[in-house]
Amino acid sequence: MAVIAARCPDVQVTVLDLNAERIAAWNSGSLPVFEPGLPEIIRQVRGRNLHFIPQAQGLAALAEADVVFISVQTPTKTSGAGAGKASDLQFVEACARLIAQQARGHTIVVEKSTMPVRAAERIQQILSANQTGGTFAVLSNPEFLAEGTAIRDLEHPDRVLIGGEDPAAVAALKSIYAAWVAPEKILTTGLWSAELSKLAANAFLAQRISSINSLSALCEQTGADVAEVAAVVGTDSRIGPKFLQASVGFGGSCFQKDLLSLIYLCEHHGLPEVAAYWQGVVDINEWQKRRFAEAVQQAAANRRVAVLGLAFKKDTNDFRESAALAVCRRLLQSGLEVVAYDPRVDGTRFAAELGNPSHFSVASTAAQALAGAGAVAVLTEWDEFRSIAWASAKLSPGAMVCDGRNVVDRTAVRQAGYGLRVIGSAAP
Ligand code: UDX
User: Fold this and answer.
1) Which pTM was predicted?
2) Which residue from 159, 205, 310, 325 has its CB within 8 A of the most atoms of ligand 1, so it is best to mutate?
């Protein structure tokens, strides 16, 4: 929304949230998310044509809006039909009810959150059942940005996707993006294709990671190096070089959730073979995290493990579904002590997510986390982990550095006299 406000100075954008504390943070100098470039844009547009208002005080803005984006979370259901797989649409449904009750005149309602295919049907039903005189058009406009590169992705998108059956509504939304996106990059499809395309894109990206991660294990057994294999495979223009970086496993709020949603949809529509195919992508990811944690456990020269990186990727403070959560849980369950360091993640919140275990603590520098450790687990590809001064790191003698991101300086680790295991490499 900040980028829309920046690129369309004539459009007034109001962001409503039920959580007044979060709105206060958006209005403060310390934003609730870390995202490179975001504070600069917010400073430019906040109070000009971007306004953050608690929902209870923002109903007039909602009533007047020509376009309303539904951008609430669609987490995996934890109870009821489809628990553990299907997307929970309760927050989307609550938004649709609120919009139906408040909206005046004609309102374009845009699905921005990732939805299961045919979710728009449910939104349309709620809007017609609860309307108080307004009329509505529902569009799907899924967001393809990735965290850490969000501003660049929004300003220079590969494509913007608008799905809908109402040409006037599609044209109206298209005119907003046309302020900075070339017309050929604004794709229009039917509603259901747009909804499914977002799930499909995330499933394809996750599938590439599970494919290369599955081969990382074979590389470790055979002496091949997964980075070399990926580089060769990626030069085929039909395959391309991106998303072939072997890792300790993908994380984040999207891939696992969207894969599970896709799997549920396939099962629901009587396609067990298709569901099983995509389930394999999830299973390899779980196996990769487990495999890495077991390697750290076996390699540890004493009971203390230093974990470097808690975020699910670099340049974000987000640790939702991060490999670090799974690996730390496993290390702690096996009785090891974990000292973690991450340049951006709030260690207190991470510890709370783990249930505040007594053997988990957070260091304020990498050097502090490393001191006395019998094993090191590198779980996020933060740039600073590429230049750790291993020679002066005070690891326990015989300690093993386990690199789940292929970022550490292999020569420096070896010269410092420590053992080294790199994901996808037999003889680092
Ligand atoms: C993803 C999609 O990229 C984005 O289009 C969608 O809108 C939301 O989901 P995001 O989860 O923010 O974005 O980050 P992404 O860069 O896709 O990384 C996801 C995970 O995959 C991270 O844990 C990352 O470290 C991992 N990854 C990525 C790999 O392990 N190897 C790779 O080659 C690429």
Assistant:
1) 0.96
2) 205
